[in-house]
Amino acid sequence: MNGRPISGASVGARTRSGKGALALVLGLLLLLVTACGGGGGDSDAGSGGDKGKDSGQADTKVSQAVVTIAPKDGADAVKTSGALKVTAAKGKLTEVKVEDTKGNPVEGKITGGGTSWTPAAHLAASTKYKVHAVAKDSAGREAAEESAFTTLTPKNTFVGIFTPEDGSKVGVGMPFSVRFTRGITHPEDIEKAIKIKTEPAVDVEGHWFGNDRLDFRPEKYWKSGTKVTVTLNLDGVEGRPGVYGEQAKTVKFTIGRSQVSTVDVKTKKMTVKRDGKVIKTIPVTTGKAGYETWNGQMVISERLRVTRMNGETVGYGGEYDIKDVPDAMRLSNSGTFIHGNYWGGDAFGNYNASHGCIGLRDQRGGGDRGAPAAWFFDRSIVGDVVIVKNSNDRIIDPDNGLNGWNMSWEKWKA
């Protein structure tokens, strides 16, 4: 009894299974007929199905473009110039992005028809950079590469000591002058690292005096109101083998009103012009025989309310030592000043009695601000021009002070 129900159940199961299988076969046959002839003989339907199949299939082919970044990822002590380069083979570069860890970008451009990229300037020292580059092959497939590296930390460095100071208002004769703490043997790299922008725009050129000083000026005196912005991007510049700059600074200064004063040694008078108009004529005394004052265009580079003048500092040992010279303004590195003189008696406008300086009557201590020297001092700024003419001496050297105006524009640019 226990076995029969089991046997009956087994037979029933086989019977239902057979009917299900038959239904399944009939369904599959019907589906097959529909799939084959469902388009009603429309040949385009089959074609459309193929298109749909193609468009849904991803392009799995790898780009043939090969991007190479130098230096390699993880490189250390990388040179700041000449080491960074991105190239593409079997394709063209479409994007190159280089920045430091602060997000500051490195400018550059893709050249060679898309085969290479180089930075527009040197890199900073002791800095980590990241590079991301993309290239496309002829089929438009992209290949990308990334790299990170750190530039060298220099053992020997230099800076540029400059004038005028940031935020200054200066006279129309003021050059931008940089004196380097180490002699420079790669001047072109230094020039590329210093950018000067002016408003309104004017051509500004640099000129080297020796290997440690670089001055910039326009062809003619600045126009009043000109705004000058200087970018000193010296950080990482190799100024000489193994010696790198460590300075990155922006300096801004403005050109004030125009004041140009002319000293005539023969008449012993100085004519002061403000914005092209004479505002005062002042009696002066200049260098006596054997100590004549330089001729030429000189720029006020320093203003001292009171200073000491000792002949020993300029090769005239024992001839004078005046501890309280009032209202003094430097015109040359060699010791030429235009200054107050309280000991000159009646020399002003009558005879030349100095050791090469230009003297104006003043009061001891400079207390009388109406005295000629005090009046001139209070109305002068660094960068104002003082021209000396009709002296028996030669024209002052362009590098003796900020006096590059005594060089022609053609020689200056050369």
Describe this structure in words.
This protein has helices at residues 3-37, 43-55, 187-192, 372-378, 409-413, and strands spanning 66-70, 85-89, 92-100, 108-111, 116-119, 128-136, 142-150, 156-158, 160-163, 169-170, 176-180, 194-199, 204-209, 213-218, 227-233, 238-240, 243-245, 248-255, 259-264, 269-274, 277-283, 296-299, 302-310, 321-330, 337-341, 358-361, 385-389. With 414 residues, it is α+β, with helices and mostly antiparallel strands. The protein folds into 3 domains: 66-150, Immunoglobulin-like, CATH 2.60.40; 156-255, Immunoglobulin-like (Sandwich), CATH 2.60.40.3710; 259-413, L,D-transpeptidase catalytic domain-like (Beta Barrel). The strands form 7 sheets. Strands 21-20-19-27-22 form a 5-stranded mixed sheet, with no helix packed on it. Strands 1-2-5-4 form a 4-stranded antiparallel sheet, with no helix packed on it. A 4-stranded antiparallel sheet has the order 9-11-14-13, with no helix packed on it. Strand 6 (128-136) and strand 7 form a beta hairpin. The longest helix is centred in the first third of the chain and has 35 residues, at 3-37. It is elongated and about 100 Å long. Residues 1-56 have low confidence and may be disordered. Pathway: Cell wall biogenesis; peptidoglycan biosynthesis.
